[in-house]
Give the backbone structure.
Amino acid sequence: MKLSRNALWGSLLLLPATVLLWVFTYQPILTTLINSFYSTPRGRRQSVFIGADHYARMAVDPVFWKAMTNNAVYAAVTIPLSIVLALTMALLVQGRLRGTTAMRIAFFTPTVLPMVAVANIWLFFYAPDYGLIDQILSVVGLGGYNLLGNRDTALWALIAITVWKEAGFFMIFYLAGLQQISPTLLEAADLEGATYWQRLWRVVIPLLMPTTLFIAINAVIGAFRLVDHVVAMTKGGPDNTTMLLLYYLYQVGFGFWDTNYAAAITVVLLTILAVIALFQFGYADKRVHYR
Amino acid sequence: MNTIVVARTGSALVHIAGWALALIWVAPLLYAIWTAFHPPAFAARFVLMAPLTLENFERAWHAAPFAQYFLNSFMLVSLVLACQLVICTLAAYAFVCFPFRGSDLLFSLVLLQLMIMPEALLVENYRTLGKLGLIDTIVGMGLPYMASAFGIFLIRQTFKGVPKELEEAARLEGANPMQTLWRVYIPIARPTLIAFGLVTVSYHWNNFLWPLVVSNSVGTRPITVGLQVFATIEQGIDWSLVTAATLLSVAPLLLAFLIFQRQFVQSFMRAGIR
């Protein structure tokens, strides 16, 4: 059978991408799923089939549940907060008012810094006695606080850093979204005598819905992807209060070398991501592109 | 840019609020800069006439092999960028110009990878690298990212906008598919390719977790991992040294950003528009 021109060229051009996608995305997904049903090989002890034992262990693993709830809180706070701030920033810096370039740079700079560097800067910022925050607190007599070492504040300290870093990034997408809003719609609102806030709520924000959804999905993925600050600042502590799912996965896989239990945790993480993907492709894409 | 949206918010109050927010946003960075450029005695003391110094940077530079780390990062980023541009462009070209039975399915598999970040699969990918003998190599650090779904998607979108007439004209003049790609598609897609390149460079210059897992020697550690290894020892002991090292490690990208600020922002915007 003679290959068509398209099939020949198409498959040749796609070969490198397909091989890499298979080796580093789809093959590991399958292997992870299989491995999660086998015990971790240790020394001379072979890996044996153990059914759903890893999952049963996970169901009663307090650290795993701590990581799940922490991650849920982390996502539920960082995402809306950074989205609202991002929109505020975009509305502030768009247009040609004086000083907007400087503001834009201020908001966007955290985005281009590596999270590890950001973590170091904030470690100092948070440091008891030395840090700016503690210095300000000590003025009102609340000094000597170790925000990252305290069970009640550690996760919130990380949340603040994430919002600081992400909001400027999301601002960019809102700036792009604002550019695409047709001026005639805004003029129409003006002719109707709408106030600024009415126009914002009734015209601008609804028209920005696709952007908001795009950002939200990226933010959800980000909430499960970025744990560099946990590695650099708290290592999940104190007392697992800053344990996030991916960090726990990293710890189980490369700290305890319990690779097949880590595989089971990976399966949970992949399931969460798959649900988000299904939501995006199935629901969001249809509902949101009404324009 | 339509400025109408904001026109009536140009009041003084909004302006002040905006500046306050901007000030909060740069405060951590300014604080680190203050500490890095002053002697340790003034690390957390604001005295207007405190002497400026570059000594912290000099000490940091000699305290760890930062030059080697920079070189490693540079090689990692160049390798990933070059491979991504070639692999993703070829794939996007195939999806747009040579559709065949099954290429739609393949494209949905690419799309699915947009959601599954390589970090989630780090345990299994580490095992794969072990089998390939690529642990603690720069190539191994870059490999899982080279078929970037994001890149394929972005370039495909651009290629789809290229008029078919141009391709046919090239073909009538006797150009083979590779010549057509090179002479027709790539020139038109240049802004997209540059935008994607900038996003990739900042992503991989900043990437940490996967390189942390893969690298375990000075000869392969990128700057992010190198900084972390260094800072873990010094944190809480010598803040001036840590902040200087931190600023040192972000300096190249930060300077590039400040100089090409407009291009950066536009690239991220372009990459975000679907």
Summary: Chain B touches chain A through 106 residues (CB under 8 Å). Residues 1-9 of chain B have pLDDT under 50 and may be disordered.
